[in-house]
Amino acid sequence: MAGDTVITVIGNLTGDPELRFTPNGAAVANFTIASTPRNFDRASGEWKEGETLFLRASVWREAAENVAETLKKGMRVIAQGRLKSRSYETKEGERRTSMELEIEEIGPSLRFASANVSRNQRSGGNFGGDQFGGGYGGQQQPGGYNAGAGYGNQGGGYSGGNTGGQQGGYNAAPAAPAQAPQAAPAPQAAPTPQAAPAADPWSQQSGGNYNWGSGDDEPPF
Predict the structure, then answer these.
(1) Nearest-angstrom CA–CA distance, 174 and 160
(2) Where is the composition biased (Low complexity) (predicted)?
(3) What is the pTM of this model?
(4) Disulfide check for 144: which of 70, 123, 149, 160 has CB 3.0–4.6 Å away?
């Protein structure tokens, strides 16, 4: 939608995505991304971490199911979407507003890990809008990452563990800071699906005919 703020966030999941379905049957996955900035201190010659941002995120429809099957707690992801404000009322009757990221594209970060991409089969070969094809699965296993891949976090906010990498791993991610109980936000409304592009880039088979050089006229030399 015009006027929405589009941002890209890189961080770690604080928990497994929670998949649910609306009364109309639309799938939605909710989760929290923890993003910790790192800045270089010229005085000390060392990298220092800033305050961690905990951003609530949601993704819809088929992409939601792909996310729920692929991404797990502690994984480092790259997510792009639109910031939305959501108002709710606490048990004490206080009116509050929170910011949420409505995700359009998301995938695992390959900075400290590797992943294999496989396309999900769909009738009609639809590859458009907010649907992206395929989980990121090593042998299509839950969690999606290849076994043995290092999940270093360079000392990020979710680096508790001895898994390979730089100063920490992806496993044993701590929970977000405890907060006072609050009333649940109003039910989410599914965003309007985007139109699918004219052609599915996955539908072209290897060695397909693109009519390159197949005409009668040869280029002059």
Answers:
(1) 8
(2) 169-199
(3) 0.54
(4) 70
CA distances from 199 to 23, 42, 58, 178, 202 (A): 31, 50, 27, 47, 9
Tell which residue, 76, 204, 80, 65, has the closest CA to residue 134.
65
Q: Are strands 53-60 and 95-108 parallel, antiparallel or unpaired?
A: parallel
CATH topology of domain 1-221: OB fold (Dihydrolipoamide Acetyltransferase, E2P) (2.40.50)
AA identity, residue 210: Y
The per-residue DSSP string of the chain comes to -TTPPEEEEEEEESS--EEEE-TT--EEEEEEEEE--EEEETTTTEEEE-PPEEEEEEEEHHHHHHHHHH--TT-EEEEEEEEEEEEEE-TTS-EEEEEEEEEEEEEE--SS--B-B-PPP-GGG---TT-----B-GGG-TT-BPTT-----TT-TT--S--SSSS--SSSPPPPPP----PPPPPP-PPPPPPPPSS-TTTSPTT----SS-SSPPPP-
Length of the chain: 221
